[in-house]
Design brief:
The chain is mainly alpha-helical and 188 residues long. 75% of the residues lie in helices and 5% in strands. A two-stranded antiparallel ribbon has the order 1-2. Strand 1 and strand 2 form a beta hairpin. The chain is rod-shaped, with a radius of gyration of 43 Å. The relative contact order is 0.05.
């Protein structure tokens, strides 16, 4: 009888262990399925990421090619603009600034601060170039004369010449404004 009880106990214990083992196996199989599903999602995400990386690399290559073309175009345009500015006067670089020196005998008659008609044409070209190249740049106007005559008079004439060029550019900028009030100020 005790042997039967021991066999019954061991059978019950074995059944409990088998049940526990089956439950753990089912949990592990479920976990393996979850991990396989997650692995499949990660592989799909990785494939999508690789596809997107390829697209981005192609976009970067195209962008780089465009930048190279734009830089080459910019250099051509800047070269042409420098040539045009150089045709108007002597173009030099002073520190971080560009200086364009226009010959006063081209702009003004001797002993005069009235702009010549040809000077107005050249200054009009310069005004357009300035708007294209340096719309927000600060501009400094300087006038010079020869050394003939009194120093005070030459200083006054230099200032008047600088003012004449400044007025010309001011009129040009106001002429290009669409505001009627700005144009009325020019006509006054």
């Amino acid at each position: 009888d005790s042997l039967r009880k021991e066999v019954a106990r061991l059978t019950a214990e074995n059944a409990a262990l088998k049940e526990d083992s089956d439950r753990r196996l089912a949990e592990l199989q479920s976990r393996v399925q979850d991990l396989e599903a997650e692995l499949a999602r990660q592989r799909a995400a990785n494939a999508e990421a690789q596809r997107r990386i390829g697209e981005l690399e192609e976009a970067m290559r195209q962008s780089t090619d465009r930048n190279v073309r734009l830089l080459a175009d910019r250099e051509k345009i800047c070269g042409e603009l420098r040539r045009q500015l150089g045709a108007l006067g002597q173009l030099t670089q002073q520190g971080g600034n560009l200086a364009l020196t226009l010959a006063s005998d081209i702009l003004f008659d001797f002993n005069s601060f009235e702009l010549r008609p040809a000077a107005r044409e050249n200054l009009a070209k310069l005004a357009v170039l300035r708007l294209l190249l340096f719309p927000d740049a600060d501009v400094r106007y300087e006038g010079h004369t020869d050394r003939v005559g009194d120093d005070d008079y030459n200083q006054w004439l230099s200032e008047q010449r600088a003012l004449a060029v400044y007025r010309f550019f001011l009129e040009e900028s106001l002429t290009h404004q669409s505001e009627p009030a700005a144009q009325e100020r020019i006509q006054e």
